[in-house]
Amino acid sequence: MSGTFGGLNTATSALWAQQRGLDVTGQNVANVNTEGYSRQRAELQSVGGNPVPAIWSVSKDVGQGVNADTVIRIRDAFLEARAQAESGRTASLTVHDTTLAQIEQAFREPGETGIQAKLTDVFKSWGDLASNPTEDGARTAVLQKTATLVAEFRTTDAALDKAWTQTRSALDVLADDVNTTIAQVAQLNTAIKKATQTGLPSNELADQRDALVLKLSQTIGATSSKGDFGTVDVAVGGATLISGSSSTGLRVVGTSDPLAVTGTDPRLVTDPGGTTVTPGGTGGGQLTALRETIPGYRARLDGVAQRLADEFNSAHTAGVDKTGAPGGALFDDGAGALTGITAKTLTLAISDTRRLAAADGSTAPTPTTDNRNAMAIAKLQSSPDGTAVAYRQLIVQLGVDASVATGNLKTQTVVASQVEASREAVSGVNLDEEMTNMLRFQHGYSAAARMITTIDETLDVLINRTGRVGL
């Protein structure tokens, strides 16, 4: 009798286990399109008999049924770590590619509105002046074209300033967003720990937390490691930001002036603590843009502006103006200095057309119609180490850098997509697989129910018919 009633317990546990499996399958199907959801599986484990011998009782039962209390998330720790690393790298390369695109927009090359076109117009105007050295119209054209070139240098510099300022503001916004996400992860860690300690389900909470950790990987290159009671610890650049339920935020410190940038300023530091953090992801890309990429091209543009001033000033002071006086500096920094000139401070130092030195210096001090100096300045366009060549080299380098950045981003996007596909193949919900599980658990439930029916019939015979002879 005890064995028969034990069979009822075994069949009941089977019914419960199959029902548990169907419930989990239904949860998976319901969340097939839920972002960040990891498919779940009911862990069916056989419940054996009593393995401990006793003096007065020995159990020879084959087992006591099945246990289905544990429901696990299907995740691959290696793929999760790869996803964090690749998403951070993709985000960083995206920022780099976007930054170079902004710099290309600032220079507007090739085109008719960039510095190259304006510089060509200046050389052409000097050629026209060489053809008509005494004509006021040609002299006026030289000053107008040169003033337009100066304005274009300043416009390009202002565009670089704008790109830097926008990136700096975006970094501040990113830090605020990161701090919010860090606090949420810490709160979810707390909830998961309490649920784990009390035996309550926490899979959905863990999904929410891991999605936020992946977001941190994208924004600041965060990596995670397993903690106690289902929690995770999160670190960035060697600095631990989340440990269980405790967390440390980030803040941006340093200059807001694009002209005061250094290799370490601005930067991200822990808050509180003030420890410098080396982030990856979007934040790392933005810091690189602020400290290296944009300042680097600004410095090269300033170098072109200084070379333009040196080249034209040297040639112009070698000539004689319309009054027979030696030519003065054509460019300065707005305060009369001829060195330390930048794209922002480049200034046309001459406003009187008579002061343009078109004649050769040997004609001084007598007014003359000589045009040799104007011709010499016009020929500077083809100088192998002149401003035109330096600027073309700058633009070519920008084009190469932008092309390489775009290519790297495309390659990285493919790699990240492959990792995400592998991760989704493991953790994502497959409806075909869930349909198979549904049928499997359905048949298991039917078999367990049939077992109970069979045991019920057996007990009916045993109880109601045993001992009734002749019937």
Structural class: alpha+beta
User: Which term fits the overall shape?
Assistant: rod-shaped
Number of domains: 2
Question: What's the pLDDT, averaged over the residues?
Answer: 91
Low-confidence stretches: none
Structure description:
This protein is α+β, with helices and mostly antiparallel strands and 471 residues long. The chain has 2 domains: 2-74 and 428-464, no CATH class; 82-417, no CATH class. 59% of the residues lie in helices and 10% in strands. The chain contains 9 helices and 15 strands. It has helices at residues 2-30, 77-107, 115-131, 136-198, 203-220, 281-317, 372-378, 387-427, 431-464; strands at 40-42, 45-46, 66-67, 71-73, 223-226, 232-236, 239-243, 246-247, 249-253, 267-271, 276-277, 319-320, 331-332, 347-348, 359-360. Strands 5-6-7-8 form a 4-stranded antiparallel beta sheet. Helix 2 (77-107) packs parallel to helix 5, helix 2 packs antiparallel against helix 8 and helix 3 runs antiparallel to helix 4 (136-198). The chain is rod-shaped. The two termini are 23 Å apart.
Give me the secondary-structure topology.
Layout: H1 2-30, E1 40-42, E2 45-46, E3 66-67, E4 71-73, H2 77-107, H3 115-131, H4 136-198, H5 203-220, E5 223-226, E6 232-236, E7 239-243, E8 246-247, E9 249-253, E10 267-271, E11 276-277, H6 281-317, E12 319-320, E13 331-332, E14 347-348, E15 359-360, H7 372-378, H8 387-427, H9 431-464
Antiparallel strand pairs: 1-4, 2-3, 5-6, 6-7, 7-8, 9-10, 10-11, 12-15, 13-14
Helix pairs in contact: 1-9, 2-4, 2-5, 2-6, 2-8, 3-4, 3-7, 4-5, 4-6, 5-6, 6-8
